[in-house]
Amino acid sequence: MQYIRFFKELTIDDIPTVGGKNASLGEMYKNLTVKGINIPNGFATTSEAYWLLLEENNIKNSITEILSDLDISDTENLQKRGLAVRRLILDSHLPKQLIDELQEAYKTLSQEYGLDSIDVAVRSSGTAEDLPDASFAGQQETFLNVNTTDMLLESVKRCFASLFTDRAISYRTSRGFNHLKVALSVGVQKMVRSDKSSSGIMFTIDTESGSDSLVLINSIWGLGENVVSGRVNADEFFIFKPTLKNGIETILKHSLGSKKEKMLYADNGDRTYNVQTSKEEQNSFSINDSEVISLAKQAIIIEDHYNCPMDIEWAKDANDSKLYIVQARPETVKSKQKNDISIEKYSLALTEDAKILASGRAVGDKIGRGKIRIINDTSEFAYFNEGEVLVADTTNPDWEPIMKKASAVVTNRGSRTCHAAIVAREIGVPAVVGCTNATDVLESGVSVTVSCSQGDEGYIYEGELPYSVNKIDISNLTPTKTKLYMNVGNPAEAFNLAKMPNDGVGLARMEFIMTNSINAHPMVLVDMHKGKPVKDDAKIRTFMTPFRDSKEFFLQKLSEGVGTIAAAFYPKPVIIRCSDFKSNEYRNMLGGLAYEAVEENPMIGFRGASRYYDKSYKEAFEWECEALKRVRDDMGLKNIKIMIPFVRTPDEGKKVIDIMNSKGLIQGVNGLEIYAMCEIPANVILADEFLKIFNGYSIGSNDLTQLTLGIDRESSKIDHIFDERNEAVKRMLKMAIDACKKEGKYIGICGQAPSDYPEITEFLVENSIDSISLNPDSLYKMHKVVTDLETRS
């Protein structure tokens, strides 16, 4: 056949003939099916078929004339001209030879699967599409549930016309592509019956941080068009590649999407339609863990074959329960940014009265401000002004021209891999997707600030709030003798923070994970697991969805949070501090009032090690230990060290170590080290006793200062006396360092002092501390202090 090639005849070298999408399918069909990758068979029209259509219908000059002198910023005029070109192509006839070859190829494909008329997906593939320096993804049409030759011929013509959608014209014009130098191939592929199962997309790179050690999988019920378009908030899974390649199946995070709709095949002429999902479907993951791992392994095989980060579409067939790869192309946003050797840090100046109007999934880490403009559909594009905040139910590729004008984008629906998210990343605009109710609670004309600088969650604040941007050049940083660690609380920020120069994590706070991912008092979950009646049961179970067992909920959420931080910095050491809430903080958790007494001074009350072996909390601490063991053993992240806070006596230390041993956390086994926080004068005075029990110390300068000087750091009356540079505190610091050096044990510091005071940093370095753990925003500044000092000495 002159104008058609089956997948088995194609390789990646055929991009000029069949475009990136179809060439990639042929490449995988030919080379990766033997490695276990399932590719539904199909065929593609060549670019010559497209040129033949234009020439036989003599419409080349007409297209040139319609698009001459086009100003793509005039969206109304762009819409008129785009419609005129598409109408020109749709009114033309398909060449007879192409019709004959399409009918023959469709018959051959149907017979291969033992059918008279097979269901196929018909997709465009631009000949400049899916190249690493150009993202044409989603700019042309896709037609599903095509199951007759007449439907196939009509779909092919509509694909040809879709080369001139408004967004495709805008994209080519803005990047200097000649419209008549870009052709279009049409891919015809056996449909996967995911309408009765699930489907989705995956990336072999983290779309936010750019980390190449993650596979990100999005999954929904039904056909995959809903996740690509952002119509549905998808389930999300993160898989850690380094341990997976070593045979350990590490799913770092499960995130349940709302999945309120699913797309099905229609029996009438509409081909597909959306229906509401059931409550059970909404509250269940659309694929199981073994399928997550299977997809991740396939993604790695595809990435290894192409030797670059990949953007992959997949589908599960309800008839044979197999997972199929239906598209794969190079990832075009984060892969281009990978060589950036500077870090841009956005910081919002929040005040107590800052009002949150809406929130959703953050895309990127920037901040945008402006007046809201709610756009309901493409007919309202002309009302959108440069610099406004675009608010919409969802977006599709038609919206790209106005997204480029926006200072920020906010949508009701979508996930971090939906169209709005992908385009926002590419054009560098902050976006908050999946807000659910943004178009209801926000009003056009109102000034807002859209912040994606606070981790996974993005926020829309009332008014235009001040913010700062700090660009840090890290190209010339050199390693220091004193290890510079980082304090990390939020797992959602871990992979971004790991890009900064560091030697590991000196303090990973368990409290942030427990507050944000678990939200309930650990003992109320223990009692629920035992079947006891508890207050706030209904609220807690809503928060637990989709988990039914409170223990598994606690273990998975805690291990995923800890594991994410450990993976982000892997294989560097990550010191995890066990929970260090005070009683008043525990009381504020769901169900907490029933378990916590009111204390006059919680800062020196029932906290730290004293809580761990007390019968009122011991079972919860045992759960913490089980979660940490899961991270080290099941997830394979043996780079974590464990730290125990507020250990008042050596006897307390022994009791805690005994509990940890009983739960399989044994010092020295698989390199496990257990440290104590050095934050009580007793820890310094009795260092020789404590260091017989623990593998080392990390100094908590905040508590050590307050207890050395006898100051309640919560009291504003005497907070002017609180100063880590006080001579008494400095002597405590030196004594602790000297004691650890004498015993050959690790000594670091994770308190606030070195982040605030260069002179404290200098003092610690001069006294040969092993490591200094700093707040991320202080790391670059203190790196210079340490480097200068080490150079002089």
TrEMBL record:
Cross-referenced NCBIfam families: PEP_synth, PRK06464.1
Alphabetized SUPFAM superfamilies for the sequence: Glutathione synthetase ATP-binding domain-like, Phosphoenolpyruvate/pyruvate domain, Phosphohistidine domain
UniProt record, GO biological process: gluconeogenesis
Pathway(s) it belongs to: Carbohydrate biosynthesis; gluconeogenesis
EC number: 2.7.9.2
Gene Ontology molecular function, alphabetical: ATP binding; metal ion binding; pyruvate, water dikinase activity
Cofactors demanded by this protein: Mg(2+)
One matching Pfam family: PEP-utilizers_C
Organism this protein belongs to: Candidatus Sulfurimonas marisnigri
PEP-utilising enzyme mobile domain residues: 384-455
Keywords: ATP-binding, Kinase, Magnesium, Metal-binding, Nucleotide-binding, Pyruvate, Transferase
Protein name: Phosphoenolpyruvate synthase
Family: Belongs to the PEP-utilizing enzyme family.
Chain ranges of the Pyruvate phosphate dikinase AMP/ATP-binding domain: 16-347
